[in-house]
Amino acid sequence: MAQRPAVVLDKVSRCFGEIRALHDVSAAIYPGRLTGLAGPDGAGKTTLMRLMTGLMAPDSGHINIAGLDTVQEADSIALNVGYMPQRFGLYEDLSVLENMKLYARLRGLNAQESQRSFSKLLAFTRLEPFSKRLAGQLSGGMKQKLGLACAMMSAPDVLLLDEPGVGVDPLSRQDLWQMVAKLTGDGVAVVWATAYLDEAEKCDSVLLLNEGKLVFDGRPSDLTARLQGRSFGLNGFSENRRSLLSRALNLDSVCDGTIQGASLRLVLRHGHDAREIEALAADTGGAIRPLAPRFEDAFIDLLGGGPKGTSALAAKMSSFPNLATAAVECIHLTKKFGDFIATDDSSFQVKQGEIFGLLGPNGAGKSTTFKMLCGLLRPSSGQAHVAGLDLRHATKKAKLQLGYMAQKFSLYGLLNVEQNLNLFAGMYGLSGGTKQQRIEEMIQIFQLTPYLRHSPDELPLGFKQRLALACALMHRPPVLFLDEPTSGVDPITRREFWIHINGMVQKGMTVMVTTHFMDEAEYCDRVALMYQGRLIALDTPDRLKEKVRTSAGDEPTMEQAFIRLIDAADCANSAERNGCTEATI
To answer: For residue 554, is pLDDT > 50?
Structure first.
C-alpha cells in the first residue's frame, strides 16, 4: 500500500504585486522523511513555508498539510503542524522556560507531558543552564534552538523549520540533527529550509527552488550524480592561493571554485574537459586530482555557475601601505559582565594582509572580543591594538582605521538604502566629490539600484548583507571586522563576498571574521578557536584538521575538527574525566 503524503502542493502560485514569488509548484512531502527546501535568496522558500502553515493563502493552486486544507481549515493547522519561522518569533521579555511553558499551554499539554518535554528539549538543545535567562539576552544560535524546542513541543505530525541552522555553531547543529532524526524516526514529516547545502545534502529528499520555480525534486544524490567527473582538487602549487583561485574562476571551463585550506576545489562546466585547469596546474607547479562531487557543486552548476574571480570592489582600491606593527593585537584581553567572564585572557596577533578566523560555539566570546577590538566595549583588563593604535587612548582615531560589519545589522531601518549609504559615508569622514563617488561605486558594485528607496528591513537577506558590507567599506579601511557576514545567505552570494574579501586582502587589507560556516574557515590563513571565553586552538585550517586526525585514512573536515577540539576541551576541563584522554580526539 502506497504511503500517503503528509503535504501535497498542487500548482501553487503566489505573487506580491509584480513579483512572482512562486509559480506552479507541485510536490509531495512524506511522513518519516526529512525534506530539504533549498534555493538562493528570493527563491520563494519562506513564502512556501508560510503558505503551508496557513498564514497566507495561495493566489492559485491548493495545499493540503496533515490532512487539512490550508485555506478552508487554516485554524486547525496549528494543532497538527509545528512551525519555526526564519525570524525569532518568541517573547524576548520571557525566560527560556517561560517561553516553553507558554507554548506547552498553547499546544494543550498537561503538566506531566510538559515536564517531560521540557527536560528532554532543554537537554537536547543544551539550554538547561540558561533556562532562567531572558530570551532577548540569548545569543543568535541559542534563540534558534529555543525556537526549535518550542516548535517541537508536542511532536506534531508535520514540522516546518525555516532555516533553523542560521547562526548555529557546528556543535549545536549536530544536536539539532539528532533531534530531527528522532522525530523522523517516529514518523514525523520534517521540512528543513536551508541556505546551507551541506544540510540539504543530508536530507532524504530536496525541493530546490529558483526564482519561484521548482527546478529539482528528488534525492540529493540524484542531483549530485550529474556532476560525476567534473569536480577536481588543485594542490601543490607555488602561487598565492587567492590569486590562483581568481585565475581559475576566470577560465571559460570553470563553473565554480572555492579554497579548501592550502588547496583549491574546482568544478567544470558541462561539456568542458580538464585541459585548462591542467595547464593552470602545470603553470604553477601544482597537480589536479578527481574529487567526489558534492550537492553544493551540483546546486551551483544547476543555477548556471558561480561568479567570476575578479572583485570589482578590490579593483577600485589602491594597495594599502605597509604597517610597522601587527594589524590587530590582543594582549591578555579580558571582559567580565558581573561574575560572567565573556573573554578570558586572550592574546594573539593578526598580520597585515591576513584573513584571521575566530571560531567557536554560540556564547564562546567571539562577538565580545570583536566589540573590544572595534572600540565598542572597554576591556575589563588587557589591551587591544588596531593598526598600531591602542584603543584605550586613541579610540576615535583607531575607529577610522577599521570597518565593522556587525552580527546584528547596524543599519538604520527608518532610513532607506541611499540614506544609509550617505549616513555611513559621513560618519567615516567622507565629503564632497569623494563621498558621492564612493556611494555610487557601492551602489553599482553591490547592485543596489532597485532598492535605493527601500528600508533595509524590506531587503532580501543577501542584499541586506551587501548593504552592510558596503557601509563598512565606504572609507576603505586597512582593517575589516566581519561578524558572521554571510549567515543565512545562499552559496552564490557567499561566493561573491569571498571574492571581494580575497581581492581586498591581496591589496593589503587585513580581515578578521567570525563564522559558523566551516567551509568559510578554509579561506582563512589562520583560525583561532574560542570556547567558554578562552582560546583553545590557533593554527592554519589544514594543521587544525591534522591535529584531530584519528588514523592514516581519516580526512577530517573543518566541521569535524571543530567538534573534536571542543570535545577534547570538555574532557580536559571535566572534574571527573571518566577516562578521557588525548586519544578522544
So the answer is: yes
Q: What is the C-alpha end-to-end distance of the chain, expressed in Å?
A: 47
Cα(300)–Cα(491) distance, integer angstroms: 8
Report whether 279 contacts 311 (CB < 8 A): no
Encoded amino acid at 43, one letter? A
Query: The C-alpha cell of 306 is what?
Result: 558561480
Digit-coded pLDDT (tens) for 504-521 = 999 999 999 998 888 889
For residue 70, the one-letter residue type is T
φ, ψ for residue 395, nearest 5 deg: -60, -50
Strands 355-359, 510-514: pairing is parallel
φ, ψ for residue 156, nearest 5 deg:
-70, 165
6-10, 58-62, 246-250, 458-462: least confidently modelled range: 458-462
Nearest to 138 by CA among 178, 195, 194, 93: 93
Phi, psi of 329 (to 5 degrees): -145, 130
3-state secondary structure of 305: coil
123 burial (CB, 10 Å; 0-12 / 13-18 / 19+) is exposed
Sign for the CA dihedral angle at 395, 398, 404, 410 comes to: positive
SS3 445: helix
Phi, psi of 359 (to 5 degrees): -110, 165
Residues in a beta bridge with 538: 528
Cβ pair 513, 482 in contact under 8 A: yes
The string of DSSP codes covering 128-196 is GGGTTSBGGGS-HHHHHHHHHHHHTTT--SEEEEESTTTT--HHHHHHHHHHHHHHHHTT-EEEEEES-
Query: Mean per-residue pLDDT for 485-512?
Result: 91
At residue 53, φ and ψ (nearest 5 deg) are: -85, -10
**Residues 377 and 533: beta-carbon distance below 8 Å:** no
Beta strand 34-38 pairing with 189-194 = parallel
The answer to whether 308 and 249 are in contact (CB under 8 A) is yes
State pLDDT tens for residues 207-229. 999 999 999 999 999 999 999 99
Question: Which residue, among 335, 320, 322, 481, has the nearest Cα to 399 in the 3D structure?
Answer: 481
